[in-house]
Amino acid sequence: MGASLGEGERRKTAGSALARQQILRPGEASGRVIVLRQGWALRSAITSDGRRQVLSILLPGDIAGGEFLMRDKVRVPVQSLTPVEYCSFDVTYLKEIAGENPAFIWTFVDLCLSSKEASEARLIDLGRRNAEQRLARLILDLHRRLREKGLSNGATIPFPLRQQTVADALGLTQVHVSRVIRSLRQSRILQIRSGQLTILDMDALMATAEFYET
Amino acid sequence: MGASLGEGERRKTAGSALARQQILRPGEASGRVIVLRQGWALRSAITSDGRRQVLSILLPGDIAGGEFLMRDKVRVPVQSLTPVEYCSFDVTYLKEIAGENPAFIWTFVDLCLSSKEASEARLIDLGRRNAEQRLARLILDLHRRLREKGLSNGATIPFPLRQQTVADALGLTQVHVSRVIRSLRQSRILQIRSGQLTILDMDALMATAEFYET
DNA sequence: GCGTGTTTATAACGTAAGTTAAAAACTGAT
DNA sequence: ATCAGTTTTTAACTTACGTTATAAACACGC
């Protein structure tokens, strides 16, 4: 991406990164909205005492850096979890498009509402559900999203998350996540092997998740 | 609001309610965005086992029912906490305005991003902070918002929340909220009397909240 | 295959927060 | 002022999850 690139080429660019790379750093002002094409990524926050809270897990098709639409600095760091490919769009370019085609903006409102709903659902999990329910719901959520994106059809999904990452998403410790996974494994509800998670007993998983209500 | 009202009058309507009334019921399809004018209200969810999680506390000027912009059903119930006054706008009317003045839509994107940021901040609280920190941060958040709205200037703010409500917001029990409040009271950090909360030692409160980082 | 670093498993123990219960303090209506 | 209903306080006891530590299982470069 040298200085010789024309305006046009900067509007949409492609990128990639290895696993565990910072893609957006807080404070940075990239001014670009990123759409993940391949791989998994994380939006997370670090508290002052060094603990981490994962805010959302990004799958192919998901958006990062949406705050640039109205803000000028990155608020939430984004990092790759697996090797990733993504494309990024200049915000001023997106706003130009929106200026010509106002209906386009409603897409952003929709995306924004959806991600707000998702984070409020997580809020309910952390506030009012125990560790087993939280894990079951995380797995069912990933399973549903991967299925919707055509990245999984059966009961098996890719699962590149370390236990520490799961813990940071669920507000637990790695040790306790290990305990809960063992419990679900021993109940023949699920199985995790070589980066793949298999749901052995969907009914039981949904029962522990209390999945009937949002 | 009889059937004889003309179209024009339905676009913007005023309303009021006593304390503890349901203003928006889940499943309902009111198609109206509500702006709170006076009083406090709550957006909350009930889990299948009957526990409650408060998703946000609405102060005068805040918006409820924003999901109607893109959805057709109420997802999150809203109830008044004190007597309230509000006005409501028909969503199709808002979209008309937006059609004539596209920049207006960006306002919604902005509002939506802000409330998403707020709920992600709460997510960090519930996932990674203890009861004392959560309460301190809730109080500082309310203090800041009331100050910004000109509804409080000094160290005293109106505080119409029951301990059970605070508990439902922080993912705790009422009993534990009582314990934490006692601890802060005994440390001469704050005082709650007749619906008013006074911050006696702001530095100490900010220290317990670890307020320097978001 | 071997060594190094990372991740997971398990155990023993600690604690913040939950549960239950009962008394005390409010609140508002009459 | 009195009463009924609600909210808060406090205490005793329980528990889900955290902490610390160590061993086992993986992963991967040479």
Summarize the structure.
The structure is a homodimer of 214-residue chains. Chain A is built from seven helices and eleven strands.
Description:
- Two copies of one chain form a homodimer.
- Chain A is of the alpha+beta class and 214 residues long.
- Chain A folds into two domains: 7-121, Jelly Rolls, CATH 2.60.120; 130-209, Orthogonal Bundle (Arc Repressor Mutant, subunit A), CATH 1.10.10.
- Chain A has helices at 7-11, 91-100, 103-128, 131-148, 163-170, 174-186, 202-209, and strands spanning 12-17, 22-24, 32-38, 41-46, 52-58, 63-64, 78-80, 84-90, 156-158, 190-193, 196-199.
- In chain A, the strands form three sheets. In chain A, strands 1-8-3-6 form a four-stranded antiparallel beta sheet. A four-stranded antiparallel beta sheet of chain A has the order 2-7-4-5.
- In chain A, a hairpin with a 2-residue loop joins strand 10 and strand 11.
- In chain A, helix 4 (131-148) crosses helix 7 (202-209) and helix 5 packs across helix 6.
- The longest helix of chain A has 26 residues, at 103-128.
- The relative contact order of chain A is 0.13.
- The model of chain A has no long low-confidence stretch (mean pLDDT 91).
- The interface between A and B is large, with 44 and 44 residues.
- The structure holds a DNA duplex (30 and 30 nucleotides).
